[in-house]
Amino acid sequence: MRRKTSKTTIKDVAEHAGVSTTTISRYLNGRYEAMSSDTRERIRHSIEMLDFKPNQLARGLRNERSNTIGFVVADISNPYSVSVIQGFEETCAKLGYSLMVCNANEDPEKESECLRMLDSRQIDGLIINSTGKNNDLLFRLSKSIPVLLIDRKLPEMPFDTVTTNNVQGMHLAISHLQEKQCNHISLLIAHPEGISPRYERVVAFEQFARALHDVRTSLKIIHSYRQELVTEHIKDLVTNREAGERIGLILGNGKLSLSALKAVHELKCQVPRELLLIGFDDPEWASIARPTLTVVAQPTYEIGRQAAEIMISRITKNEVYLPKTVELAMRLVSRESTDLSYDAVLSR
After folding, report:
1. Which of 141, 164, 183, 267 reaches 20 to 30 Å from 234, CA-CA?
2. For 166, phi and psi rounded to 5 degrees?
3. 146 Cβ contact list (under 8 Å, min separation 6)
4. How far apart are CA 325 and CA 42, in angstroms?
C-alpha cells in the first residue's frame, strides 16, 4: 500500500506562529494593513519551517486573486532588465506574490501576444517596459487590474510609473567629460522611436550642448544595433579629430557601450588617450572590461523594489487612485575609460 503523507495546513502554521488562522489567511492574500512586521516575519518563518504549500488555485477562486503579477520585459537580454526583475521578484516573494515574466524582444506584436497571454492567466497586476505601440490594449487591461510602467513613460496613459531622471544623468555625463577637459563631446544613441528614456537623453544632450562654450558637440542617432555602425562612427570621430582635440563619447545604453568597447579594440584606438568613453547603465562586465568603463549608473534593483511595493499596494487596497511617477536619481561611476592617468600607464 502507498503510504499517505501528511500535509501542513493553515491551522498548523497558525499554531506554529502563535496567531489565528484568519491572520494567516490575510498574510497569504497580501493584506498587511493591521499586521506588524514582527507578526509577518513569524508567519514567514513558520511557512518556511513547516514547508507549507498553500493551494494557490483554491485561494484564487475564493478571493478572486491569483497572487501572481505579470511582467512584460522589452528585452530580456539587456542587463538593465535582469537587475530590475531581480529587485521586483525578491520584493514580491517577501510579500507572498509570484512573478510571471514575458519577453517582448522590442517587438510590438510579440508584446501584444504577451499581454493577451498574461491576461488569460488571471494575473492580479501588470508591470511593463512598454514599446509604446499597444496603448489601447494596456488601457483596456487597466480597467480590471493595476498597470505600472517601468523606465519608459507613456504620459498620455493613467498609469503608475517608476523611472530615472535622464536629464540629471546626462548632466552627470557631460559635466564629467568637461572636468576631463574634453573639447568635443559626442552622443551615440539608438533612435528614440517613442521610447521616452532615449528621447529624454537626446533632448537633454541638445539642451546642455547649446549652453557649452568652446566645446564642439555632435549627435549620432542610429536605427539598429549593428556593430559596423558603431565601429564606423568611432572611426570617423578619431580619424577626423582636430589638432589638440580631446573627444568624449557618451553611449546611450549598455548595448551601445559594449559595441563601443568592441569597436575600440578592433580599431586599436587608445582609450582614453584618443577617446574618452562613458556609458549609460552599469552592467557587470563594465567593471572588468579593459579599460574598465565609466558609467552613469541607474538604481535598477531599487526600481524593481519600489515598483513591486507600489503594485502590491494597488492590488491589496483595491481603491480608486491618482497615478504617480517615481523618478530616481542616477550616479556617476568613474573608471579607467575617462581616467587620464590610465593613459599615462599605457604610454610607458
Report:
1. 164
2. -70, -30
3. 124, 125, 126, 160, 311, 314, 315
4. 34
pTM of the model: 0.78
Q: How far apart are CA 32 and CA 95, in angstroms?
A: 9
Q: Residues in the chain with pLDDT < 50?
A: 1-5, 56-62, 347-348
Distance (Å, rounded) from C-alpha 205 to C-alpha 208?
5
Domain layout of the chain by residue ranges? 10-54, 63-164+300-329, 166-297+332-347
Closest CA to 279 of 235, 315, 332, 230: 332
How far apart are alpha carbons 115 and 145 in whole angstroms? Answer: 12
For residue 14, what pLDDT is reported? 86
Model confidence pLDDT, tens digit, residues 219-256? 999 999 999 999 999 999 999 988 889 999 999 999 99
CATH of 63-164+300-329, one of 3.90.1200.10, 3.40.630.10, 3.40.50.2300, 3.30.70.20: 3.40.50.2300
Q: Please tell us whether the domain made up of 166-297+332-347 is placed in CATH 3.60.10.10.
A: no
Q: 42-69, pLDDT tens digit by residue? A: 888 888 788 776 654 444 444 567 899 9
* 194 φψ region: left (φ > 0), alpha (ψ -120 to 50), beta (else): left
Residue type, 21: T
Nearest of 205, 258, 193, 199 to residue 231 by alpha carbon: 258
